[in-house]
Amino acid sequence: MNNKCVAAVLLCVALGGAASAPAQERRQIPEFRTYGRPASTEDERAVDALIRNFEEAWGRQDTSALVALHAEDVEWTNAYARIIQGAEPLGRFLEQRLFPGFDPAVSRQEAANMKIISKRFIGSDAAVVHLYTDGQRGASRNANEETRRTHMHLVLERKEAGWRIVHTAIMDAR
What value does the mean pLDDT of the chain take? Predict the structure, then answer.
């Protein structure tokens, strides 16, 4: 079979598979799932506590508490593609740019609305948490929607000091 035929077959297989895959609607949230298994029940409790602490600190706009949940070498990418590397620069960004731009009630609303979509445990010392929130951090572009949806992917690593966020990616789902 020549390369063009192979490419055509692969394209047909790919398109056929895509057509049969169930599509997720834009704002439809799937049921919560856990992938993999934590190394111990203590790890699972520690990850859950970190997420609760994240939600609470976000709701209080508490920069110090948020930064303490992150590793020193954290990488944070927000919905506007700003990339911040390091806990200290992240703290400055939160304190000087993000939180001053919004009424504390906005962050409280987002924290109250945070829901975990999935937790994925990878090996014995890593996890990915996908959560989302609906809030007033800007208007939704979708008609008849009062809130704006934001997704956060938090990559966690077990460090000597406990579980820490080592990478954050935020997606604005307007």
Answer: 84
Q: Which two tokens stand for residue 37?
A: 């298994």
Residue tagged 């080592």 (tokens) = 166
C-alpha dihedral sign at 150, 171, 91, 162: positive
Task: Pull the structure tokens for residue 131.
Answer: 């959560």
CATH code, 32-172:
3.10.450.50
Q: In whole angstroms, give the CA distance from residue 53 to residue 171.
A: 21
* Pairing assessment for the beta strands 126-135 and 83-85 based on DSSP bridges: unpaired
pLDDT tens, residue by residue, 100-159: 988 899 899 989 999 999 999 999 999 999 999 876 666 555 566 566 788 899 999 999
Closest by CA to 63, choosing from 107, 129, 106, 109, is 107
Domain locations in the chain as residue ranges:
32-172
